[in-house]
Amino acid sequence: MRLPSETDEAPAPSRRALLFGGAATVAGAATGFALGSASSIATAAPAGEPLHGQETVAFHGLRQPGIETPAPAFVSFVGMNLLLPADAGMDEEREVLRRVLKLISADAARLMSGRGILADTEPELATNPARLTVTAGLGPRAVKLMNPALVPAWLKDLEPFQMDRLDKAWGQSDLVLQICGDDRMSLAHAARAILKDLRPVASRSWIQDGFRHSRGSQDQAATMRNLFGQLDGSGNPQGEMLERTLWGGEGLEPWVPGGTSLVLRRIEMDLDAWDHVDRPGRDFTLGRSQDSGAPLSGGGEFDSPDLQATDALGLPVVSPDSHVARSQAREADEKILRRGYNYLEGGSAGLLFASYQCDVSRQFLPIQRRLAAVDMLNEWTTPIGSAVYAILPGCVDGSYLGKELFAV
């Protein structure tokens, strides 16, 4: 009997051996690599480094989260349209909307607490919510379907503005979800999980992803910067003024108690052209110092600009055509809460401008009309998307968003 020599051809491995034996070999090698890597990482990482993946925000309450909640690092705005049965009656169509809101409420409550949705195929991706929030709003058709008597006068397309170049791809939808969080993985999972759950009753119209500074890269109270380098949101209201701005009071009435509104504008920014503007030109255009955010008339970032201040030649220190001068409130009602997020997609860059306010007509539109008429910053910015939504009140545990608002 001949013994096999070193030159004999080895028998071909079976398919099973390749699949399982090879996998075991790779797994073993990977395990060894992982252990070694983990050891070196553990040695290099500072002891007690804080993690924030387990931080949660409560879903249930009289108002929805994600508005006054401090803005986390990432956002996905998801626009959806209802899938209404052909030749269906009003009652049947209303039940579709009711089902949508029940699903959103149940899914949001689970995902924000770090649990996967029911029948989640990847529940492991939900275990680090990292301040995940889900906020739901309705477009004109959805509010009319819910209860025609509740449709606010401001819930409609914004009037046309001369600098707009709107693309219907980023236009009005029946519903919007604002999904925010500090972890891109859990946020992406949440958006996909909710969309899968809604597939039989709603179709996706668009998704707009945005980002801010990463968690821990700057003080949580610091104002974000947009891609022009500008501090974006310095004039946001605080305290009692914020309460009135969002939820009403002293003559401002919300469309329903606990509800507010969202104007979402997608603004394209010409970064290449902005690169050619020197720092004095940038400051003059903004009416603020780009580095500190302070008005050119003096003071700090959060001080109001003095539009009457003049220089040695008698010229205005803050140009009346600058962005800060045009956006400055002329009336007490002209206050909005800005929650902007930057976007970069291929060769396109810009700002997802989310404006929250109690009444679009009285608070947002006067500011927007002035900016549309004259604003030096318009030379480098172009609005390409626009939509308006009524934000629903919150709900208590055991209920769902909008339950009490449906017409009988």
Kindly list the characteristics that best describe this protein:
9 helices, 9-stranded antiparallel sheet, globular, 408 residues, alpha+beta, 28% helix
Concise overview:
With about 400 residues, the chain is of the alpha+beta class. It is about 30% helix and about 15% strand. It has helices at about 15-45, 90-110, 140-145, 185-200, 240-245, 270-275, 280-285, 325, 360-375, and strands at about 75-80, 135-140, 175-180, 200-210, 260-270, 335-340, 340-345, 350-355, 380-390.
What is the radius of gyration computed over CA atoms, rounded to a whole number of angstroms?
26 Å
β content, as a range? 15-25%
For the biggest sheet, the summary is: 9 strands, antiparallel
Distance between the termini: 92 Å
Give the overall average pLDDT.
90
Number of domains: 1
So what's the overall shape?
Answer: globular
Residue share in helix: 25-40%
Number of helices: 9
Q: Report low-confidence residues grouped into runs of 5 or more.
A: 1-10, 13-43
Please count the beta strands (DSSP E, at least 2 residues each).
Answer: 9
SSE series: HEHEHEHEHEHHHEEEHE
Derived from helix and strand composition plus strand pairing, the structural class reads alpha+beta
